[in-house]
Design brief:
Length: about 750
């Protein structure tokens, strides 16, 4: 149980893992034989078209001619011929590994071919084929009739999604040596995915639709891992990663006239050191000492170190003024410090100078309470957005329409809006099925359709290999869902606070909070150090090197990595999501208390990684006041870690339980008020005003008759019939007309 011996994990958090690792996770080990199938389909066609040459020996013009030949082959009616052509294109996107000598060459040609394929319109052609496969009712009904679904049921979809994923990932990743035309292609592709020209919706929405169709049971053969990976990378490409988010935050604050951000949170956390979490044996001794009467110690007059002050003032046992509590929660100092108004003024002036707050009123003209409240954190853009006036509909018509900037995030939200609850429920259903703590149920969805082979293993070695493949498959699904949910929350929060709140509420309504807690209710160190990978089978290694003989011992040993990057990445993402859902929300904080999250989160502190520990400590901090004095006494080392790692505010009283008299119905009212504000925002900005009773009416006969109406295509063919049925055959009631006048 001891965690002191756990080594520090050298983990660098970012948008995604290394390029080759992200490409390798696209394929399951069961799909390995298909690599040679793709190569065979390409070489059979290529050698028939180009005699005695290799792909690497062709110049760019000759390569374009051959790619155009392949794209013409996608137009054929025969399904099998079309699949062979698609496999040949997939082989190009995979880097023509048959002509390469090492992994670096494969990755180089994969990027080169991806840019070439995009410039010639391959992505658009595959998008049309993907729409055809999604609407293929025969494949859906065939999969529904089968008792067990395997890889063979999703062959066409997997080929199409693999080509699209390789193109998105290769074009998304920037490298210093990229030529200028590649940079132009990248921006064009990003704009094409963000601002759809030929369709009414962004590409990400089609993938969301695939997710909901899969979860509804209408398309159980959809390869969900590939769909989710592609969806995550499309969102990362179109919306932007953490660096892009930071740049947008800076720009937004400038537009709103707010002071610049003092630091980048991600960069600060990367430089933090992990704390040694308390072991249960040490805390047990402390509890026993407290029972024997060692409850407090005298204060030394000149105590200045934080640990000394922490030991001298046990949380919950000090009786002093609020001002002393406030200042002591920020910085340690002797008790007599706050008794001097002059010293207090010097302290606040220094603190303001440290925060860059030179625009605050002087202490002589301000009460202490006002000083503390004025020194709160600067207002954030979401707070300003939430405080914008909510005009009634008639007034909005007189004032004109609200100006909304057409950003990729805004377009995505508008497209997702009316089906957003279904999207969130579907994602959480898949996350639940992929969680290692979930037990197999008959009514749960089957997420293994794109990893199980047609013939089940018959030897122990084959069973071990499939077991590793299944676990790896689930880990990749958790990684992609956690990353895309965090991306959505962060971008929607920056775009408009109520967009963020709308997504957050539906995640909470779909039981996201207990789901994440259930995920962490396991041996988290075992999950982070899991070795569910076979490095010799990973792409692109398996394409250029001969496969060694696999044994049960080599599979058990796994790789030599200290930890599994994707699992640690997933854990941090889930903790960040939980923080975003519960921050400043008392009702959701109480959910953490009700679901007994404290011991679960405390066990997660065993992982000695600074960023993960910080988000665990944040979640413990917000619920500390509700856990009771005895819990605080029994967990002094955890309390000390919160003081050391988590940012505090001037009037932060998280450790003193001042709000424990709040009533449950206040929490319900809080959620209802928030929901009403969200609905008002969505109605104001996105509902069509034509249906409103306040919409203006055009009373001019010439203006009305001069308007062009959109008529259905078949109306011109049935126009005469319509005239006969609707006009000539209807009697004219002149008396009613006279009465109207």
């Amino acid at each position: 149980q001891g965690s002191v011996d756990c080594p520090n994990l050298e983990f660098k958090y970012g948008d995604a893992d290394g390029h080759s690792a992200e490409l390798a996770e696209l394929y399951s080990y069961t799909e390995e034989p298909e690599l040679s199938t793709n190569r065979r389909c390409f070489e059979e066609d290529f050698h028939a078209q180009v005699q005695g040459r290799r792909w690497l020996e062709l110049d760019e013009a000759q390569q374009k001619v051959y790619v155009m030949h392949l794209l013409d082959g996608l137009e054929v009616v025969n399904r099998d011929k079309r699949l062979r052509v698609a496999r040949a294109i997939l082989y190009l996107a995979q880097g023509v590994f048959g002509d390469c000598d090492n992994e670096g060459d494969v990755l180089h040609w994969s990027r080169h071919n991806s840019f070439l394929l995009y410039r010639l319109g391959t992505f658009t052609a595959f998008l049309e084929l993907l729409n055809m496969e999604i609407d293929n009712s025969q494949a859906c009904s065939s999969a529904l009739r089968k008792p067990a679904i395997s890889l063979a049921d999703s062959t066409e979809l997997r080929v199409l999604l693999s080509v699209m994923y390789l193109m998105v990932e290769n074009i998304r990743v920037e490298q210093e040596a990229d030529p200028p035309e590649w940079k132009t292609c990248r921006e064009t592709f990003r704009m094409e995915l963000s601002f759809p020209v030929h369709t009414e919706e962004p590409f990400a929405l089609l993938l969301f639709t695939m997710v909901t169709k899969f979860c509804s049971g209408h398309a159980p053969h959809f390869p969900m891992k590939k769909v989710l990976l592609l969806l995550w990378k499309v969102l990362l490409f179109t919306l932007g990663g953490f660096e892009a988010l930071q740049a947008m935050k800076v720009q937004k604050r400038e537009e709103l006239g707010l002071p610049p951000l003092p630091e980048d949170s991600i960069q600060v956390m990367r430089s933090m050191r992990a704390a040694s979490p308390p072991t249960y044996s040490i805390e047990l001794m402390e509890q026993q000492q407290q029972k024997r009467g060692h409850r407090s110690r005298r204060v030394r007059a000149g105590a200045s170190s934080w640990h000394t002050a922490q030991d001298a003032f046990p949380i919950g046992t000090i009786i002093c003024s609020r001002s002393q509590l406030v200042l002591r929660s920020m910085f340690p100092f002797p008790l007599s410090f706050t008794e001097s108004q002059t010293d207090l003024g010097h302290f606040l002036s220094s603190y303001r100078l440290f925060l860059g707050r030179r625009d605050r009123p002087p202490l002589a003209t301000t009460s202490f309470k006002a000083v503390v409240e004025s020194d709160e954190v600067s207002p954030q853009p979401p707070l300003l957005q939430a405080k914008q006036p909510q005009f009634p509909q008639p007034l909005l018509i007189r004032l004109g329409e609200e100006e909304v900037q057409e950003t990729p995030c805004e377009i995505l939200y508008r497209a997702m809006l009316y089906n957003l609850p279904q999207y969130m429920i579907a994602l959480l259903k898949i996350l639940l099925a992929a969680a290692p703590t979930s037990k197999a149920k008959t009514d749960s969805i089957n997420i293994l359709a794109d990893v199980l082979p047609e013939e089940m293993p018959i030897t122990v070695l084959q069973s071990m290999k499939l077991g590793i493949d299944v676990n790896r498959h689930k880990e990749i699904i958790v990684k992609s869902i956690s990353a895309l949910l965090l991306l959505l929350l962060k971008h929607f929060k920056l775009n408009h606070i109520y967009q963020f709140e709308y997504v957050s509420q539906h995640l909470v309504f779909a039981n996201c909070i207990p789901l994440i807690l259930k995920f962490f209710n396991q041996n988290i160190m075992s999950y982070i150090t899991a070795k569910n990978s076979i490095s010799v089978l990973d792409y692109p290694h398996c394409t250029v090197y001969d496969l060694p003989e696999l044994t049960a011992e080599s599979l058990e040993a796994g790789d030599n990595n200290q930890f599994c990057w994707r699992n640690l990445f997933s854990c941090i993402n889930l903790l960040r999501i939980l923080n975003k859902l519960t921050k400043w929300k008392h009702s959701r904080t109480m959910m953490l208390v009700v679901f007994k999250s404290a011991p679960i989160l405390k066990r997660a502190l065993k992982v000695k990684q600074a960023m993960m520990q910080l988000y665990v400590l944040k979640l413990l901090k917000i619920q500390t006041k509700y856990l009771g004095r005895q819990w605080r006494k029994s967990n002094m080392k955890t309390m000390s870690a919160i003081y050391q790692k988590v940012r505090h505010r001037m009037n932060d009283d998280w450790a003193y339980g001042n709000d424990i008299d709040a009533r449950p119905w206040d929490f319900q009212a809080e959620e209802c008020t928030l929901r009403a504000n969200i609905e008002a925002f969505n109605s104001r900005r996105y509902d069509k005003p034509q249906d409103s009773e306040f919409a203006p009416v055009d009373n001019c006969l010439q203006s009305v008759l001069g308007q062009r109406l959109e008529l259905p295509e078949d109306f011109h063919y049935s126009y005469e019939l319509w005239l006969e049925r609707e006009v000539f055959s209807q009697p004219i009631r002149w008396e009613e007309l006279l009465h109207c006048q």
